[in-house]
Amino acid sequence: MIPDLPVELWLYILSLLPRAQLPKLLGVNRVCSARAMDEIYREVLFTDDGGAMLKTFRQLQYPAISSRVQHVYIQPRFFPEMAAKPRFLKLMKRRMLHFRRKQTQMLFFNPRDDVLFIAQCALVNCTEATELTIALHDFILPASFGYLLETVWTSLGPNLHRLTLNATLAKFPLILKDSLLSTLPNLTDLCIILSISKFPPTHKQHTLAIRALSCLLNALTVTLQSLTLYSYELEEIVMLFQALRYFPHLQKLAIHVAEGQDSFVPQTLTQFLARHENTVKHFALLEPFETAPWNKVDLMEL
């Protein structure tokens, strides 16, 4: 039994320890246990549909646990990968029609047993989270995943301060619905990663993606302070900046472009910077880099 010490002294001792060691202090005393619980449940990583993930979701039903979550990371890897075979895609498209809300009877599984439904019921409780990361690449997304995202935006959106979106162009219109634009009143830090897809986007997909991103950014004109952009192709950055408005509180701007710096059209960027010369304090146009967080690199490992 460790003799009790003043709370202030315990907090000072805990501040000296590496965060990775904090979970080991669970059960030492009340202060240590509280900090251990804070660290254990600080992040929720929704990446699979295994038993451990379902156990976490069940635990999030308790306010004492869900209130500790600060970062929600969504990158489901259990969806079927996109394939170039038309017959397979046609079959999956036909199947996803059965997931329309309140219309047809579920023919493939009961939504109560679906991990997405369980995740939806759990994440709705994480209203204290201040950071959200969504990573979607070349997977086929069921309609029920869209319902999950709607719940996440509605429940977590009002308290979010940092948002990271890592997706292929085709996925951004699915993530960024018009209804979410009013759910992010406190967002100050935005990171957008335009990942590479095995399937080149069509002109329509490209246009819709840039439109969805510009609508999101322009909805954050009052609050946005930091903007980071990753893109493999220069054209996407140029088109995006052409649609942006004035951000009165923008202080930091970082652009990572893997190709095309030599042919960069300066007018788009210089005009944007000229409008923000009194606000932007940190600007970086970075050279090609080896650790670019494209879809071939797990964002969690960066």
Task: Walk me through what this model shows.
The protein is of the alpha/beta class and 302 residues long. The protein has two domains: 43-160, no CATH class; 163-302. It is 35% helix and 14% strand. It contains eleven helices and eight strands. The protein has helices at 7-16, 30-40, 51-59, 63-66, 86-96, 115-123, 143-156, 172-175, 203-218, 234-242, 266-275, and strands at residues 43-46, 71-74, 131-136, 162-167, 189-194, 226-231, 252-257, 282-286. It has an eight-stranded parallel sheet with strand order 1-2-3-4-5-6-7-8, with helices on one face. Helix 3 (51-59) packs parallel to helix 6 (115-123) and helix 6 (115-123) runs parallel beside helix 7 (143-156). The longest helix has 16 residues, at 203-218. The radius of gyration is 22 Å and the shape is globular. The chain starts with 6 loop residues before the first helix and ends in a 16-residue tail after the last strand. Residues 98-113 and 294-302 have low confidence and may be disordered.
Which range does the strand content fall in? 5-15%
- Average residue pLDDT: 79
Largest sheet: 8 strands, parallel
- Please provide the count of β strands: 8
List the total number of helices.
11
Radius of gyration: 22 Å
Oligomer: single chain
State the domain count: 2
Unreliable stretches (pLDDT < 50, length at least 5) are 98-113, 294-302
Lateral arrangement of strands in the main beta sheet: 1-2-3-4-5-6-7-8
Which structural class do you get from the secondary structure elements? alpha/beta
Ends distance: 40 Å
Protein name: F-box domain-containing protein
